[in-house]
């Protein structure tokens, strides 16, 4: 081999080796390190982790997914303080925060959570938050089978345990935790999470600057099978369809184009609901939660509509990352059944906050009609007292991307010269002199309707957009 070629090859090999080595260190560098020695004793106090974890262990032959709908064996094996990759955009690391950020009360509610995931949640908070920002960690044990799951953890400094005397569900449990909190800022956290580097400061900073902001982190994915920590996309926000089914969706393209700083907050129409930070006075002022909602589900819509419509805002902060074990099923049971509870809760949200647009909720979820949902009088009174905006305002200003089903129908006044189209009975049409104007126009003459307002017993012409076809229809329900 000629010397020149050999030398080039050699340089190449050395170069790629150098890149490999630097990548290795870079990778190492970006892993959130844990000052292990300092933590032991200092952060967990007299707490005996080994005894706590070995008190509940999977027996040989047991299905590791049975009780928690994730691989318990893998979670138990991992230990409570593993390093995870720092999944933030690199520019997040150079952001600075106020030196006088106020502390927060962390509220974690759970029902029969696995000990290893619950402990890892708590330890990740203690390891990756500035100690001065953690006022306390309030565990609300929603009547788990074993009171010790919660009680033993109070040996860890700052950890408190409140236990419900009966199953209340996550909504009333969170309210209990919030009422017991002594800090001015509340941080709600799920019980199978791992918070990432500097997760807390960006959220507290935003709430400190404006107490009406309710902020969420980007929620990374912890695999339910092998507990790998996986970065979630930073281009997502919370959305929903008319059946009030939550979904992650892409940020609208115009907003995406306008984002030249990946560390900027993302406005979101709704939050997923499990993890967020909110000023305590603002939480109380806005009426906490609808405590007539049971167990789980729908409370994130109710809170999100209320925050936006009553003067606040919701955002996702890309520089705050928290991992969460997303599951395919609920491991615990709903005393009233899963579907019924979800319908009751979302129906309460729709009835209180969605005004005339609730018809689309019922159209998308016909089974909700006629299902009991209890009295909503106090929530309606709250909405009046807070003088909140309409749901129409919310759709126009916060979530214009949500397609309104009836906008495919065109209601209009049809006129030719001085003549207007007029209904004769319910079947036929004729041209006649235009009578009246605006709302004083007789019902027999086709009126100009706003897309959503259709008076009871009024006729309207339904024009399908696809075909050049129209028909006369009678409004079934008043949507005005
Ligand atoms: Mn969860």
Automatic annotation (TrEMBL):
Domain Glycosyltransferase 2-like: residue ranges: 105-283
GO biological process: protein O-linked glycosylation
Name of the top EC class for this enzyme: transferase
Any Pfam family hit: Glycos_transf_2
Reactions that this protein is recorded to catalyse: L-seryl-[protein] + UDP-N-acetyl-alpha-D-galactosamine = a 3-O-[N-acetyl-alpha-D-galactosaminyl]-L-seryl-[protein] + UDP + H(+); L-threonyl-[protein] + UDP-N-acetyl-alpha-D-galactosamine = a 3-O-[N-acetyl-alpha-D-galactosaminyl]-L-threonyl-[protein] + UDP + H(+)
Taxon lineage: Eukaryota, Metazoa, Chordata, Craniata, Vertebrata
UniProtKB keywords: Disulfide bond, Glycosyltransferase, Golgi apparatus, Lectin, Manganese, Membrane, Metal-binding, Signal-anchor, Transferase, Transmembrane, Transmembrane helix
Protein name, UniProt field: Polypeptide N-acetylgalactosaminyltransferase
Taxonomic source organism: Denticeps clupeoides (denticle herring)
Subcellular location, record wording: Golgi apparatus membrane
Pathway membership, UniProt: Protein modification; protein glycosylation
